Amino acid sequence: MFAVPISIVVSLALSFVLVRMRLRGSLAPPLAVLLGACILQGVVNALAQYYGLPVFRLVQPVTAVCVAPVAWLALRSAQGRGGAPSAGLLHLLAPAFVAFCIARAPEAIDAAVIAVFACYGAAMLLALRSGADGLPEARLDAGDWPPLVWRAIAATLIFSAVSDAAISLAVVSGEGWLKSWIIGFGSSLTLLLVGTLASLPALGRAPGIVDATAAPAAAEAAAESDAERGRDAAIMADLERLLDGQRLHRDSELTLSRLARRLGLPAKRVSEAINRQTGENVSRYVNGFRVADACQAIDAGRSVTDAMLGSGFATKSNFNREFRRVTGMAPAQWAVSPRMLRPAELTPPAPPESIAGPQAT
């Protein structure tokens, strides 16, 4: 009876996601490459393990380790640190080393694959220590989700290293029959997780704008001085003019990188000013303006959906999450709640004629 290997099923599912998101233009090229690498590896796994084709058994470890550096380069691109294409060529050393092991030192193949996945996963976790502000190309309406998704991808790479270690242990302990099962399920699960995480809306594409005149990163002072606090305050005043005056927060594609370009400053300098002046990261700061805008729209009689789209949120899930974080209630609850139960800083002043009595509902 004809059967389809699980890795082929995973590749078909990820192919559908890739084509759909590329047609919609919602997937950045580095993430599309990551999805493509996962799709290719699923096919290679099936041809090597399920159909037993010798040439693909040799190729399988090489194509497998390509997923890790591709994930790393996708993260660096999201952090605005993609660099020159030649820099990415250095990461070809990982698959090249595994290919060398296949040809000259077969006993070292498993250790090499484990090391590649573990090292890239750990490096990604270290690179994500700065949180949401370290991803200037991420859409701000996604809130704190982008770094969480990237951390999940990094953890999945480490899980792959653990899965490969389990394969080696099974072979050494004389339970080699488990190898195909672990590869079939462990590797397929890894590819499915990485591919699915890479396609989540939280990592959705924000159109980039080439900025040939970006200012160099400002030198960090050893300690905060009165002059620096003054500069921070000036940046915040300019930000407020952009967000509150020009309603820039209503742009659903807004990113830290684009916001910094409007200010003529490095993205890091903008995030530092917001962090020091408000104690919030950039996405939470901007989404605060959006939520306040949405609250005013709802109070003016507009529907929750119109308020969401008009205030700069692109997805309902992000809107609901940020609205509840800022106001402590869902948008629908806000629409029917008495004024006295709302946060004072988000509630517009009551008109004089309504002060004498309770608000009508």
From TrEMBL:
InterPro entries: Homeodomain-like_sf, HTH_AraC. It comes from the Bacteria. The chain crosses the membrane at residues 6-23, 30-52, 58-75, 87-105, 111-128, 148-172, 178-200. The keyword Transmembrane helix applies. Keywords: DNA-binding, Membrane, Transcription, Transcription regulation, Transmembrane, Transmembrane helix. Residues 240-337 form the HTH araC/xylS-type domain. One of its GO terms (molecular function) is DNA-binding transcription factor activity. This is AraC family transcriptional regulator.
